[in-house]
Amino acid sequence: MALSISVPAGATNVQAYTGRGVLFGWSVRDTAATAAKVTLRDGTSTGGTPIALIGYASGESQTALVPGPTFITGLYVDRTTGSATCDLVLYLSED
Predict the structure, then answer these.
(1) Which of 11, 56, 84, 87 makes an SS bond possible with 60, Cβ 3.0 to 4.6 Å?
(2) Measuring CA to CA, how many Å separate 19 from each of 24, 37, 56, 66, 79?
(3) CATH assignment of 2-94?
C-alpha cells in the first residue's frame, strides 16, 4: 500500500514511520530563509543508518523520486541545519 506521510515545519527530529517499508521519494518546501539538511534514517533515532540525504537552499521547493531503498526498523527524520523550517512529505510503501 502506498503512503504519504506529512512532517510539518516546526517539528524537530521525528519518527515518521515504524516498521519495514520502502522509500520512494519526498517533497520538501522551505518556509524560511535558511538553507537546510535532512537525513532520513532506518531506525528510531539519530543513530540509525542513513538511507537518504536531502539538502536544499533557502526558499526552495523540491520533489524527488528515489530507487526504493528499504528500511527495516522505521523511518526517522533527522533534521539538521535549519531544517525545522521546512514542510516535508514522504512517499513510501509498507513492506
Answers:
(1) 56
(2) 16, 24, 28, 19, 20
(3) 2.60.120.340
Q: Where are the domains of the chain?
A: 2-94
pTM: 0.89
Task: Determine the Cα–Cα distance for residues 79 and 68; give it in Å rounded to an integer.
Answer: 21
| End-to-end alpha carbon distance in the chain | 8
C-alpha count within 13 angstroms, C-beta hemisphere, residue 55: 2
Q: What are phi and psi of 94, to 5 degrees?
A: -75, 145
Q: How many CB atoms lie within 10 A of CB 24?
A: 18
Question: What distance in Å separates the CA atoms of residue 78 and residue 80, rounded to the nearest whole number?
Answer: 6
